[in-house]
């Protein structure tokens, strides 16, 4: 059973062990909270019910598969993808040797293919194999990348 709890004026939900947990203080859940919960369940696809308004407001038209894929901007061995959000970007490096990477925000790196070595001027280095990732804090600044294969860089 789903229970609601009020924190800062907004309901937060968890699972209730029994019906006594459905009470907030000494009062029953407010009707607005129940309506909000019903709307959330319907619009999130948790039920098979669909509102007629959802269908009438949606335009179903085919999209060419070529327009679904973003094409990267090539910069030497780095393919930068034009993400339409200012605080997020990602790029893919292919076979680089001691490529300088400048970090101005937190980054997550992932080896897609082969291996990658991340090195810092402090002498610290990290070897990553395919499927492994690492978090690079914004305070690192400049670091070096050597890859054999493909390497993905995601930054905030």
Q: What layout of secondary structure does this protein have?
A:
Blueprint: E1 2-7, E2 10-15, E3 23-24, E4 27-28, H1 31-43, H2 52-56, H3 65-68, E5 73-75, E6 78-81, E7 89-94, E8 99-102, E9 107-120, E10 125-129, E11 133-136, E12 142-155
Antiparallel strand pairs: 1-2, 3-4, 5-6, 6-7, 7-12, 8-12, 9-10, 9-11, 9-12
Short description:
With 156 residues, the chain is mainly beta.
Structure description:
With 156 residues, the chain is mainly β. It has a domain at 21-30 and 71-155: Jelly Rolls. It is 14% helix and 45% strand. Strands 5, 6, 7, 8, 9, 10, 11 and 12 form an 8-stranded antiparallel beta sheet that branches. The two termini are 38 Å apart.
Spatial separation of the terminal alpha carbons? 38 Å
**CATH-scheme architecture of the domain at 21-30 and 71-155:** Sandwich
Main β-sheet description: 8 strands, antiparallel
Which structural category do the helix and sheet elements fall into? mainly beta
Q: In percent, how helical is the residue content? A: 10-25%
Helix and strand string, N-terminal first? EEEEHHHEEEEEEEE
The top level CATH class name of the domain at 21-30 and 71-155: Mainly Beta
**Within the CATH hierarchy, at the fold level, what is the topology of the domain at 21-30 and 71-155?**
Jelly Rolls
Average pLDDT rating? 72
Name the poorly predicted regions.
1-28
Task: Describe the structure using short key phrases.
156 residues; mainly beta; 3 helices; 14% helix; 45% strand; elongated; disordered N terminus
């Amino acid at each position: 059973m789903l229970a609601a709890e009020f924190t800062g004026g907004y309901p937060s939900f968890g699972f209730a062990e029994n019906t006594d947990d459905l009470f907030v203080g000494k009062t029953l859940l407010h009707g607005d909270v129940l309506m909000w919960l019903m709307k959330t369940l319907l619009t999130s696809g948790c039920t098979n019910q669909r509102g007629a308004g959802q269908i009438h407001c949606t335009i179903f038209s085919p999209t060419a598969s070529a327009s679904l894929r973003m094409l990267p901007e090539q910069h030497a061995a780095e393919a930068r993808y034009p993400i339409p959000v200012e605080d997020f970007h990602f790029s893919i490096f292919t076979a680089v040797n001691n490529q300088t990477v400048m970090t101005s925000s937190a980054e997550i790196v992932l080896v897609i293919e082969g291996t990658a070595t991340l090195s810092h001027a402090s002498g610290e280095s990290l070897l990553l194999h395919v499927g492994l990732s690492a978090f690079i804090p914004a305070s690192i600044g400049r670091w070096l990348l050597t890859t054999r294969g493909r390497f993905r860089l995601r930054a905030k």
